[in-house]
Amino acid sequence: MYRPKDVAEKLRIAPSTLRIWSQHFANQLSNAARKAPSDGAGPAAQRRYTDADIRTLSQAKAMLTQGLTYDEVKRQMRDDIEQQATSTPAVANQAAPPPAVLSEEAQSSLIAMKEALSAKDKTVGALKESLAFMDAYLQAIREEREEARQRTHQLEKEMDKLRAQNHDLTEKLSKRWWKILLGLP
User: Fold this and answer.
1) Domain boundaries, given as residue ranges, for the chain
2) Other CB atoms within 10 A of residue 51 CB
3) pLDDT per residue over 95-124, tens digit each?
4) Considering the entire predicted model, what is its pTM?
5) What is the pLDDT of residue 162?
6) Are 99 and 59 in contact (CB under 8 A)?
7) What is the pLDDT of residues 136-168, one digit of tens each?
8) DSSP character for 14?
9) Which of 28, 35, 58, 151 makes an SS bond possible with 45, Cβ 3.0 to 4.6 Å?
């Protein structure tokens, strides 16, 4: 049984990464590797890893460095187990080929690329949200503009009526008082 620090060194990963992987791949690991921290009632439970756990985590590492997601790795591991269970004994006893291992530099580059893609995905998501907000804002401005046009049209009609009334009143006031009294033009 190996301590987490030893396993992290063997796999050339950080202990925090080992904790994350132990949670994600708990169903593929031994009970000792799945121990969770205690609830505070007693001392914290210590994870311990078997040789089989190390092989499983090494396989997971190889798949993750090839760009697979946690869910895809779990699915692949589950499919491999099912395939081994249904294969003939002669095939089941054959040694599995070792997983492809990338250099540490290549792994670092791959991780950096994944982080960059993740950051870009977040940026694209934020831009989409911003675009949706701008579309809604633009629609509101268009509706306000249409309402303003209708109101302007109504005011122009009212203004035409008032001009006509003003013209009529101006003509009436420009007539001599005696013409108005006599009804003359």
Assistant:
1) 4-101, 102-185
2) 10
3) 555 555 667 777 878 888 888 898 899 899
4) 0.43
5) 97
6) yes
7) 999 999 999 999 999 999 999 999 999 999 998
8) -
9) 35
